[in-house]
Amino acid sequence: MITFDHVTFTYTDAERPTLQHVDLHIPEGELCVVVGETGTGKSTLLRAINGLVPHFSGGTLAGTVTVDGRTTKENRPRDLADVVGFVGQNPLASFVTETVEDELAYTMENLGVPPDAMRRRVEDAVDLLGLQDLRNRSLRALSGGQQQRVAIGAVLTASPRLLVLDEPTSALDPAAAEEVLSALARLVHDLGLTVVMAEHRLERVVPFADRIILVPGGGASLVTGAPEAIMQTSSVAPPLVELGRLVGWDPLPLSVRDARRMSAPLRERLAPMTPPQRPAPLTPTADRAPAASVQNLMVSYGPVVALDGVDLTIMPGEVLALMGRNGSGKSTLLNTLSGVRRPTRGAVMVEGRNPQSFRAADLVRHVGLVPQDPGLLLYGESVGAECDTADKTSALPVGTTWRTLDRVLPGMPTDRHPRDLSEGQRLALALAIVVAPSPALLLLDEPTRGLDYPSKDRLVHVLRALAQDGHAIVLATHDVELAARVADRAVVLADGQVITDGPARQVVCHSPIFAPQVAKVLAPEEWLTVDEVRQALGEVVPV
Amino acid sequence: MTRSAVPRRRSLHPVAWWVWAAGLAICAMRTNNPFLLALIGVVACVVVSARRSSAPWSRSITFFLRVGVLVIVIRIAIEILFGQRGVPGHVLFTLPEVPLPSWAAAVSIGGPVTLESILDAFVLGLQLAVILLCFGAANSLASPYRLLRSLPAVLYETGVAVTVALSFAPELVQSIGIVRQARRQRGIATTGLRGMRGVAVPVLESALDRSLQLATSMDARGYGRRVSVGSTSRRLASSATIGGLLLMAVGIYGVIDGGSLLGLGLPIIAVAAVLCGLGLAVGGRRTARSRYRPDPWRQPEWMVAGSGLVALVTMSVAHALDVPGLIVSFSPLAFPTVPLLPVVGILLALVPAIAAPNPNLVAGSAPDGGTEAGEPGAVTPRRYRDPVDADLTGVPT
Q1: Contact A237, A203 (CB under 8 A)
Q2: Rounded to whole angstroms, how far apart are CA atoms A317 and A336?
Q3: Rounded to a whole number, what is the distance in Å from the CA of A72 to chain B's nearest CA?
């Protein structure tokens, strides 16, 4: 279906090629997952399939890419639109029309499909992807999972033989991700479609994959193979695989179900041990003031209530994971805590004061927010300039931000433009800028979007260190594995109300949606991470 | 198909609304009788209130109403300050006169203000306000997106550009809000020249980003696929279109002015329309596009467009018959007569209030856009992806 024949691709002005001597063959009817660390060229590989690279990106491509017998040299992306359906990272940015139904028909209109065929195919896509209730709605009013499904439907109606998706689930909550992935699996199994997707959250996609393409980066050649084989040695691997490698399971389990079946001996061995307990949530006393608190907080946008009677106290040194569906009010709570949004009712206190009463320059010493898109905080010409500005605006001694950055992520290039940094580097820079004035309350909105496993590891260490220094940290996240590793306490929001608030271990282990993979395998014992299991087993020989 | 059991919300063909509104607007251009003008305005408002949907653009009528009032006020104010002097009439009050040098003799500031001149100014302002109101009515009744969809194939690409621009503006406003918040988080002022630069750079960067992503997606989805056609037909298409447009301008002038061109206005417009249609049809062959569920043109469309045209025709007939009261003068001061024929014609333009399908009545389909899309908080950010815009609006996931 797809053949890469000796493909080498170099972006204009780049020093070395992003793809080097790539030989790849993807047969029909497979679900392929492209994995690798950030910046290794996964997106470039995906975009080369339908010719967006190089027709749209510029740069030089040597070798040939053939899709369904057509080369990208002779066919532009628009000419391949009937064979390849391409869904980019941000579905909302890719929508052309206004309503769901028009969007579903858009590709077909361009291809000149006859009207009655269009009608039929739109109905089929609506049924396949479960869009019945959405067909007349405005695209902008949909949730993330719904948007992703519409984006898939919109390319599917052109009946392509091949779907290419760039990180289809990274912005989604666990339930919505499940929804999208099962729709994709159905397309592969029922229609024999070929699907190629890149994804960082391997724990979500690996169980569905027929084949994995590992992009090691640094000019090394691609490794292609069955998931079991690749995962034995891959540098990026979901927790389940790490657990399997640790214990020496063979064949390596890829789904929770497989692992669960093999885990009886391990569970027996772990039975006498108890998972390490994180400190119990603190309570405020006379000499221990909370870092922040909200009381009976209500926030509404016009008629829509985003937060409804929320009570929360956050102590210094605490890491709190805020979880819940897209649209459950997580970001609104962060915005309210950071003084951006005025509560409709109720009180917000940060270090005993209403965050809205701080002057902009003082605010940074009390509360800092790293937004979902860290790039929003960055507008300087270079990393160095960015650090200098931060020192100046926060009235810090010269070099403070730079030193903080060096602690968060050593070896950042000073002269690089912030837009040319990788996701991980950008997050590190934004984090350093926010942390440098040492705010008592640190808020992070969905910090792991687009991060690979090594960057995530680093983030976990940095956050734990910051908590030990006495910062109170609140992170809103869909990433259950991150929450399991870093949080002391977990709060689940639904429909703007707190439905659970307690020690992270108990909260996530008892939820089928928010439980990390290790907890699912080892239930009912409350183990959260591979590291905990590793420590418990010591350096003992595999079971 | 199971869906067909649920009636699809039927919205009237946007072109029908525009024809109706244009008919009324041209009527308003051809009379200065304040009663007729007021009647036209009332008819437009009644139809809008009866048949507008809950979409965001439906509220634009209030905007046009306000602009209309403003136009009248400004017109009267200008008349009071700079109006023509020396015309006999009932003096209401006298403003102190400002002496101007002799080379500016044509302009006068201040002086006696007469009732007649104010009435004249009011009627001129009212005429403009009613014309604006007619366009406002069309805007409120017809979805701009659906109107663009009914553009001929050759103009399709322009249409897409306009659609994208339409959806882009509110996003720009949103992203300015987000960036300002983020900068406050960094302890940076967001006002003043430096602050503006700091806001503008990230906003433009994200705008650029979005355009690139959109362009990528459009290309990957087959936008701009072409069929090659010969140069003869291309030349034929462009000359027919340009010639048609020129004739159209002449014809419209003839219709509006009435006196000139010996009543040839309508026939010239007809010829021009045929030429334009030919040009667009030939030009459209270059794109191999097809159209998904084009808006049908059925009886309600005929009724709506027809009622606007009937109003226009009665007005033209009244002109041809020299019915008194179409063009009134307030010097000498006199109560204008109200001619019956145009009144009947204008009242017929009320037909759409009943004949057009009611967009709010149909069960089984949520109103699109509107409240959810134009999300009240405005600062609730697309990229900051929180809120409220999604699951809270009550549609089950």
Answers
A1: no
A2: 20
A3: 12
Instruction: For residue A327, give the chain B residue with the closest CA.
Output: B387
Total residue length of chain A: 543
Strands (E) located in A270-363: 292-301, 304-314, 319-323, 345-350
- The edge-to-edge listing of strands for the beta sheet with A70-71 is A19-26, A2-10, A60-67, A70-71
Name beta bridge partners: A4.
A24, A65
Chain B hits for A55, CB-CB cut-off 8 Å, are 219
| Contact call for B213 and A362, based on CB within 8 A | no
* Parallel/antiparallel/unpaired status of strands A223-225 and A319-323: unpaired
Segments in A172-263 forming alpha helices (H): 174-191, 202-205, 227-233, 239-247, 256-262
Predicted confidence (pLDDT) per residue in A399-446, tens digit: 999 998 988 888 888 888 888 887 788 888 999 999 999 999 999 998
Pairwise CB contact (< 8 Å): A78 & B224: yes
Q: Could A98 and B163 be called an inter-chain contact, meaning their C-beta atoms sit closer than 8 Å?
A: yes
Provide the ipTM.
Answer: 0.81
Which is the CATH superfamily of the domain at A292-495? P-loop containing nucleotide triphosphate hydrolases (3.40.50.300)
Please list every residue in chain B whose beta carbon sits closer than 8 Å to the beta carbon of residue A328: 391
Phi, psi angle pair for A84, to nearest 5°: -110, 125
Phi first, then psi, for residue A452 (nearest 5°) are: -85, 175
Distance, CA of A162 to CA of A30 (rounded, Å): 10
pLDDT digits (tens, 9 = 90+) for B346-361: 999 999 999 888 877 5
A422 to chain B, any CB pair closer than 8 A? The answer is no
Most distant CA atoms of chain B, gap in Å: 81
- Which residues of A, range 424-453, sit inside 8 Å of B by Cβ? 433-434, 437, 445-446
User: For chain A, first and last CA: distance in Å?
Assistant: 42
**What is the chain A residue with the closest CA to B373?**
A141
3-class secondary-structure state, position B352: helix
Q: Are B220 and A86 in contact (CB under 8 A)?
A: yes
Identify the burial level of A84 via C-beta atoms within 10 angstroms of its C-beta, where 0-12 means exposed, 13-18 middle and 19 or more buried: buried
A311, A294 contact by CB (below 8 A)? yes
Domain assignments of chain B as residue spans, ordered by start: 8-144+297-359, 229-286
Determine the Cα–Cα distance for residues B181 and A113; give it in Å rounded to an integer. 46
Domain A2-236 architecture? 3-Layer(aba) Sandwich (3.40)
DSSP run (H or E) holding A25: strand A19-26
For B189, what's the count of Cα atoms within 13 Å in the CB-facing half-sphere?
Answer: 6
Tokens read off for A462 = 């940095």
A chain contacts of residue B224, beta-carbon cutoff 8 Å: 78, 110
- Compute the average pLDDT of residues A185-198: 92
Q: Is the peptide bond before A54 cis (omega within 30 degrees of 0)?
A: yes
Domain ranges of chain A: 2-236, 238-275+517-543, 292-495
Question: How close B135 comes to chain A (CA, Å)?
Answer: 23
